[in-house]
Specification:
Elements (H helix, E strand, L loop, with lengths): L2 H13 L8 E15 L5 H4 L5 E17 L2 E14 L21 E6 L3 E16 L2 E8 L31 E11 L2 E8 L8 E10 L2 E11 L7 E13 L2 E12 L2 E16 L4 E10 L11 H6 L8 E12 L2 E10 L5 E10 L4 E11 L11 E10 L1
Antiparallel strand pairs: 1-2, 1-19, 2-3, 3-5, 4-5, 5-6, 6-7, 7-8, 8-9, 9-10, 10-11, 11-12, 12-13, 13-14, 14-15, 15-16, 16-17, 17-18, 18-19
Length: 391
């Protein structure tokens, strides 16, 4: 679709507010994220990258919802990202772009200069019709499957790399989604994610219910990890979430099999436990087994990682973290992910202060570690300040 007409369409729906105040809602947020990055000394010789880097990422996201008729609505979420980076070298910072779960390219970059990029994109654009028995959603939407806090193996539509601290929203998927509700806590979700070639399209189902205070679901479908790939995989899996004494217990996992070669298969799963010890202290522990990963770091496929086709490179990971509420307006959190195979990882430190109910200030650091050529050895150390305003 021509970019000019996309812009006309956006402002048309935003202007509806003038004529249907009671049926239109508008909200959003602005985030400013100054980041200071510097490479570890161990990467100087190997990568020949000794330059420190200052970045400033500003995100403005606009959310609009228009109620069309009974139980029907149209939703649009439009985002503008402005990125300044100080390096004079070629520099790539993972900005929003067309993902392998998106049929249409609704991203354009009106400004792409030596030190600044400005990106516009539509991340949600869908029509939702509700019925007594469920709903149908057509368009770019968020499909959230799984129960994991850090990793989501069963989420084959909107996965996100836990190391990417500057990404707020999961990418939308261009899909037709149908949900049928059988009763309280029981439903089935059918999803069709089209591609340019119909035979390369992705489709899946998720049946969810509740058994003895445990939320449980099974899922399955046929998916392609890459756009226009002939390597299709049949995936089936399950997830659960409930309580174990005073703690929360959750897990999810999948079996992925190459549809043309049944010997090409792997298992991926997570198991996590968390607990709110007091009103101020919370802790989380989560283990991740990535059957698609490699135990030898020389076999890591960084190309697929950068493309977003995979979220991790190795096989075994563990996350340990927690949060402490100093007082109602100030929270401190710490988290650590370790690659148990190559010993690399990163620690996140974050302090969040609520200036008002709509304005937050975060001060954080991501400290990476690892031996040469390990997974997180490539990541720089990052210090950042994040300011969020919601309206």
């Amino acid at each position: 679709m021509n970019q000019k007409w996309i812009a006309v369409l956006i402002f048309f729906f935003l202007s509806i507010k003038l004529y249907a105040q009671s049926d239109f809602s508008f909200s959003g947020y602005v985030v400013d994220l100054p980041i200071y990055q510097f490479p570890k000394e161990s990467t100087f010789d190997s990568l020949n990258k000794i330059e420190e880097q200052f970045l400033n990422l500003t995100r403005a996201r606009f959310r609009s919802e228009y109620k069309l008729w009974s139980d029907a609505r149209f939703n649009l979420e439009y985002e503008i990202d402005a990125l300044y980076y100080s390096s004079s070298d070629d520099f790539e910072f993972s900005m929003s772009g067309k993902s392998n779960r998106q049929l249409f390219n609704l991203t354009w970059i009106p400004v792409k200069e030596k030190h600044i990029n400005i990106t516009h994109f539509i991340d949600r654009l869908y029509f939702r019709q509700g019925f007594d028995f469920g709903n149908v959603i057509i368009g770019r939407q968020r499909i959230s499957w799984g129960t994991g806090r850090i990793w989501n193996p069963t989420d084959l539509f909107n996965p996100i790399n836990p190391a990417v601290f500057y990404k707020i929203e999961k990418d939308g998927a261009d899909a037709v989604s149908f949900k049928y509700t059988f009763g309280n806590f029981t439903d089935i979700n059918l999803v069709f994610n089209p591609q340019e070639k119909i035979k390369n399209s992705n489709y899946g189902f998720r049946f969810r219910t509740n058994i003895k205070e445990y939320d449980m679901s099974i899922m399955g479908g046929s998916f392609s990890e890459e756009v226009d790939s002939h390597d299709r995989r049949f995936v089936t899996g399950l997830d659960f979430a409930g309580n174990l004494f005073n703690a929360g217990l959750r897990g999810e996992g999948i079996i992925s099999i190459n549809e043309d070669d049944s010997e090409d298969k792997f298992i991926t799963f997570i198991l996590g436990v968390d607990n709110q010890f007091t009103s101020r202290i919370y802790a989380l522990l989560e283990y991740h087994y990535n059957g698609e990963g490699k135990t030898d770091k020389s076999e890591y496929d960084f190309t697929r990682l950068v493309k977003g086709e995979i979220q991790n490179l190795s096989k075994n990971y563990i996350y340990a973290g927690g949060m402490y509420q100093v007082y109602p307006l100030l929270n401190l959190s710490i988290g650590n992910i370790t690659n148990l195979n190559d010993g690399s990882g990163f620690m996140n430190f974050l302090g969040t202060y609520s200036v008002t109910e709509d304005f937050y200030v975060d001060l954080g650091a991501q400290i990476t570690y690892g031996v040469e050529l390990s997974e997180y050895w490539y990541y720089p150390i990052s210090l950042y300040l994040e300011m969020e305003y919601y309206f």
